[in-house]
Amino acid sequence: MKQTIRNITAAKAIVHCLKREGISHIFCVPGESYLPLMDAIFDEPSIQLISARHEGGASFMAEGYAKASGKPGVVLATRGVGGANLAIGVHTAKQDSTPMVILLGQVHRHFRGREGFQEVDLDRFFQPIAKWTVEIREAERIPELVQRAFRIAQTGRPGPVVISLPEDIFLQDIGEAVISDIDIPRPAPSAEDVWSVQEILQRAKRPVVIAGGGVKLAKAEQLLRLFAEKYSIPVMAAFRRHDVFPNDHPLYVGHLGLGTPKSIIETVQQADVVIALGTRLSEVTTQDYRLLSPDQTLIHIDIDSDVLGKVYPPAAAIVADCKEALAKLLETAVEPSWGDWAAARRKQYEQASALPAEKRNFNEAIIASLQQHLPNDAIITNDAGNFAGWLHAFFQFTETQMYIGPTSGAMGYGMPAAIGAKLAFPERVVVSLSGDGGFMMTMQELETASRYHIPIISIVFNNSMYGTIRMHQELHFPKRVIGTDLGHVSFAELAKCLNANGIRVETEDQFTRALIQSFNETKPTVIEVMTDPNQISVTATIDELRKRSNSR
């Protein structure tokens, strides 16, 4: 379906493209290089502009919004300085396969090549970390190239696209703008592909599925559950894709992430057939690319042909949308003989992920409280940091679209991503988990949440250090602490200064009361959790790490 609009400015043509895509929220830090575009957005009631405090925060909001909503995230910034600030969000979207469209105001065309004010070759600058980049120099091509950007961002393996727009182009007139619906192809496996999978599974003794973000992007979680149940195949979640399969299901056998227990990793190592479904088999998922052996048979199914064989050579390489692939695989005839093995691996997962009745530390108590009191449809985001180890190890994700986390490991992600998720699902409780180091990197966006009345809940684990780096420091350079200690900051008091609620807690009861209270707030809440600096990870304290180094 096409729409033809005549005699329209370039800025308004962009807004028509955004509206056609169903974009309801755009994130930005205002810049004079694209003021006409902001003015055109002002006239479009279906689109809300969210003005952030920093472009990095705005890009994380757009990325979180995209993950939650399934629509492309859209973020605006100005010239080289704004573009450089939001680069972290572009990198995160690339590694996380998140569809994003980044519109950057550029130097006036007549000033290009003279090192104009804040001039950077933005299309070349972003090329290594974006899926596609373009600078539009003719107003007439704006409808064509903006729509192409949305198509590329969503086609195949999704990702970020960057459009550079010289500031003098926005007010130019376009005689005729054709705005079309964008069709996203969903390739299905061939009959030969399905037959090859059936043949491999018929010979299998211990198959396992590693399910990644491609399953979530295809909205194929239900089909994955049906596939696993039909053939009694255990399922593991790739790094930070916890909600791809219900964690309380008898066939769920664990998450392949940082600090994954040995007993869970052994499930993959014991498998004779591995079905990698919608995952690029990243460094973390594959435990530093050491997870699979040449003796194992790999079936790799992904919508992007470049992913197949990039890490491990597959016996069957299938280019397909995960939903289409699972629908076809459900038609195969395979008699499972591995039920006892699948049940045994489930028991190993249950033992590794069970919280003790008597909590060993405050972090365990926090996870237990979240598990007990969060609504079933709550959304959890997290930042980078060792505090997330407790979430990954012990929290049970039982519903779809429940978790949003950065596979890029970007610090400062959790709280801005929660803002984006809350805008996508305003009726759901949205909680972010952050360490004090990461939270401080984008804490200014708490004021953005306050200003727009976005009542997210931010849990900040405060141990006054960069905990993950400190852990590695203690392992490799014991007792030679440098650069990883942080000063004391009262995040609860800072939250109040940014027009949010702030609560400091030191016990499980205090935390639970603060959490339940925050469900009914109309403005954002920060719950500052005072944690023991010595408890550096799920499995070790700093004292224990030092003892190990002394015994070497």
UniProtKB/TrEMBL annotation:
GO cellular component labels: acetolactate synthase complex
Thiamine pyrophosphate enzyme TPP-binding domain mapped to chain residues: 383-529
Record-level GO BP terms: isoleucine biosynthetic process; L-valine biosynthetic process
Keywords: Thiamine pyrophosphate
CDD domains: TPP_enzymes, TPP_PYR_POX_like
Domain of life where this protein originates: Bacteria
Domain Thiamine pyrophosphate enzyme N-terminal TPP-binding stretches: 9-121
GO molecular function terms noted in the UniProt entry: acetolactate synthase activity; flavin adenine dinucleotide binding; magnesium ion binding; thiamine pyrophosphate binding
InterPro entries reported in the protein's UniProt record: DHS-like_NAD/FAD-binding_dom, THDP-binding, Thiamin_PyroP_enz_cen_dom, Thiamin_PyroP_enz_TPP-bd_dom, TPP-bd_CS, TPP_enz, TPP_enzyme_TPP-bd
Thiamine pyrophosphate enzyme central domain boundaries: 198-329
Annotated PANTHER family: ACETOLACTATE SYNTHASE LARGE SUBUNIT, THIAMINE PYROPHOSPHATE ENZYMES
Family: Belongs to the TPP enzyme family.
Name under which the protein is recorded: Acetolactate synthase large subunit
Species for this entry: Parageobacillus caldoxylosilyticus NBRC 107762
